[in-house]
Amino acid sequence: MKKRIIIIGGGVAGLSTGIYAQLNGFDSTILEQGAQPGGLCTAWFRKGYRFDYSIQWLVGTRFGVFNDIYKETHILTDEVKVIDSKYHTLTHLQSGKDFLIYTDIEEWQDYLIANAPEDEKAIKKMCRHMNWCKKLQPFEMPPPLRTPIDYLKALFSSFWTLITILRFKNMSCNEYFNKLGFKNSWIQEGLIKNYKNDNFSVIAFLLMLSWYTQKNAGYPIGGSLGVAQRMEKRYNDLGGSIQYKHTVKEILTENGKAIGVELASGEKMMADYVVSAADGHSTLFNLLKGKYLTSKIKRAYKNWDRFSSIVQISIGVNDVLKTEYPIQVTLCQKEIGKTRITHSYRMINYCYDASFVPNGKTAIVIRFDSPYEIWEKMSKEEYAEEKKKIEQIGREIVEQHYPNSRDKIEVVDVATPLTTVRYTSNWKGAYQGFNPTRKNISQQLAQSIPGLDNFYMAGQWLFPGGGIPPSTQSGKWALQLICKKEKQKFISNDK
Asked: Does the pTM exceed 0.90?
């Protein structure tokens, strides 16, 4: 008889877990509280427009360990076109001069030197550090299954990358840029002020451009919803079962072992293994009643910074608004409703993905950080009024960036931190888990918990920085660990 696995959460981590469970001969069921797959990797439709909530770029679109997972789970198939943009972001500085980040390190170096020749030495040093990071590849196996040979291989293949990480792993972007000693005020504003978070790890910044320059961080046409739907189809085709609108109330345990789950409806479902790919905080503090907290878990949820919750203003315009710079960041001090913008807001123009809109139209998304505390105690009346204010400002922002477009706006949709919590239960609306800081960039939380057998965790809360790549990998890792326990060979695909 097949061993049964219950998977909590139908986001990319849960779908990945389910796919590898089916490939390895288990009987799996995914329980998803929402009505569609993907979790935070999602999109929604309004009057014919599709508004994306997740993917701007995806590490591993060309090669490597993540790329293998994408092909195995059908995140990427031969039919999926991947776009590699020339530019990472265009930042509108408060001083008035724009600041570009290219996706090619050499091009970016030439651009920076042309605009700030007095900083040529510092610019070349920064770009050299980025190039040193190009050899980094994640491990194929989870930490408990790695051997000394795995670590030796990583050392030989990624020597300069590892040296760079060890050298700068405790340094923030601000500390790094200041240490380089940039003199030019434009480059200072474009880098130091743009990455002003005192804790944000410079390793995350250096790795970002190293992936881009190898054309290994592209954008898959179809965006987030396309990814979720392809994974769902892959899981269903393998015989898996997704039960939507099924909210788990508690993970059932007996004699130090996970034995199943209890749903909000009162129904109990039993299993040989339980994998939670749901929100990390909800899993540990609610579904497990806080009974299995290690000292590291306690420290992480108490001390590690989490990504801020966000507001997304989605706008559909009855016109073709073309741009060379799909992602634009505006540094500013601005009030958007009750939120005081102290750093920036971000605008994404999806003109490069025709699947988002009917011909002749444009889908635009504006995002800004908005602390969850602003929203959590609002009355229904205050909430409705706040969304109206934000909608109005969203219309004004689009008009500022694209003059004469305001009268062509056909739809405006406002998603708030409460929207995120309602659909995904993500802790305080943090859309990408823990922030990668100088304190935690080299750490991760374990997928198993001492004292609770036959239970594993998957998802972005295990890895500072979060996102789709480690989330999908954690699903694969969960099955590698289960297969090891079951003393059976792990299978990664059905070919």
From this structure: yes
